[in-house]
Amino acid sequence: MVAQWRVWEIAGNLGETHKQVVPITVFVTVLCFCLVVGHLLEENRWVNESITALIIGCVTGTIILLISKGKSSHILRFDEELFFIYLLPPIIFNAGFQVKKKQFFHNFFTIMLFGVIGVFISSPIIATGCWLLFGKFGINLSPRDYLALGAIFSSTDTVCTLQVLHQDETPLLYSLVFGEGVVNDATTVVLFNAVQKLDVNRIDGWTAVKVLVDFLYLFSTSTALGVAAGLVTAFVLKGLYFGRHSSVREIALMVLMAYLSYMLAELFELSGILTVFFAGIFMSHYAWHNVTDSSRITTKHVFAMMSFIAETFIFLYVGMDALDIEKWKMSKLSGWDSIGVYSGIMLLILLGRAAFVFPLSALSNCLNTSTRRSTSITLNHQIVIWWAGLMRGAVSIALAFKQFTHYGVPLDPVNATMVTATVIVVIFSTLVFGFLTKPLISYLLPHSNASNLEREPTISKEALKLPLLSFEESAATNLLRAKDGFSMLMERPVYTIHSFWRRFDDAYMRPTFGGPRSNELS
Questions:
Q1: Three-class SS of residue 406?
Q2: What's the predicted TM-score (pTM) here?
């Protein structure tokens, strides 16, 4: 009798395991199909990987819906924790690891304007617009929900935008859109979390100050943690030289330290996005030079592969979720009312982005007139930045699920409407704006002008060899050098800070943490 019961228990466990294996197998098969189709469409200037995954996701969802006789379009159920813990870190880390650091930091001020100030401009516009719009359709949300919607729809899609633009073809635009995307993601997630902690019944002038102070604290501490993780990894790799025994260990250390930095940031309630991004930058700047040649090639491809699979996974799921019949049945809006809500949200996104891209671009051009840039942010650049940032994606989906569902299931018709609205906005913006971004860039920025880089005056080898301060020289000489440096800082701040950093990097950082000196690279 006991043996028979044991057999049935084992059979039951095998049945449960089989239920989990089947959907995972199907999903992995569809992922492989996405890779094949993406390869075949590689030369098509209208379609990128995100659009391919979305379309295949919609088709797959339709097939599953027909097979299940209208019961479900899902293979797997979305979990926002799965997204934030497993899928987002490799995407952001690879962005930091692969970024062209010179372009990113030359445009750092403008990137911060777009990524931080832009969110604080667009979020109130979208939140207020949703409050005015939804009342006309009988949708009643709490003040916290409206503020959360402002953050949700202020998040640009870093993944899709980076696939539309290319570093070598449009370096200035790529630098601005890429940098804004990463900072924007971090800002919106921090702002979203800050909204959850707000006492919405006691909002006053100090509330905005508190949110700003919290953001500055999170930004600085998260960045410091990422920098520390990158430097510790570089120091360990340089001191222990794992490569003399096994290149596998040094690659594993870089992967695990990057993931550890993200998890530590989440553990301390910081911004894991910023932490893992700066960890990627400093690992590529120092740690990458301390591994063997084979590991350098492998790490670049491994990180890119992990990011690519995570991106494809997210967009594939979003396409399938668009056909979730349960959410559509739960939503009580009529067809025309639904179209009105979706159109209204898209219009608010257009207005919210325009409200900061064009004014902040003009401000950036005014403040950078003294830096002698050969390329300013022209009107055509501004139009492309505005258009490319209209796409919404994975972060918006994850935040919407976090706000309006309980483990992926909406609890009432209003929440179901908000989730379906977010999914439709993501799909529409990705497909429409994603389709048109490449031809728009080709029209506004011909190839001959697309590669026009933002150039700072080059730093001579003689300047790099000058010490910051020298004990072998007189105090008068050091004072004169400091005075000249201060004058340069006032006239050309970006160039001067960059030159001082290069000299400090060569004198102290690279000898300690690894990497060739600047004059050795020339």
A1: strand
A2: 0.79
**AA letter at 262:** Y
Which residues contact residue 337 at a Cβ distance below 8 angstroms, ignoring those fewer than 6 apart?
Answer: 137
What Rg value do the Cα atoms of the chain yield, rounded? 25
Q: At what angle do helices 205-240 and 171-197 cross, to 10 degrees?
A: 120
What are 25-76's pLDDT values in tens digits? Answer: 888 888 888 888 887 877 665 667 778 888 888 888 888 878 877 666 566 6
Q: Bridge-partner residues for 516, per DSSP?
A: none
Three-state SS string over 137-205 comes to: HCCCCCHHHHHHHHHHCCCCCHHHHHHHCCCCCCHHHHHHHHHHHHHHHHHHHHHHHHHHHCCHHHCCH
Mind listing the pLDDT tens digit for each residue in 381-418? Answer: 888 889 878 888 878 888 888 888 876 677 788 888 88
Residue 269 gets the label, from left (phi > 0), alpha (psi -120 to 50) or beta, of left
Check: CB of residue 440 under 8 Å from CB of residue 381. Answer: no
- Residue burial 213-240, b: 16+ Cβ < 10 Å; e: rest: eebeebbebbbebbbbbbbbbbbbbbee
Residue 409 half-sphere exposure, CB side, CA atoms within 13 Å?
A: 4
Q: What is the dihedral of CA 118, 120, 123, 128, to 10 degrees?
A: -120
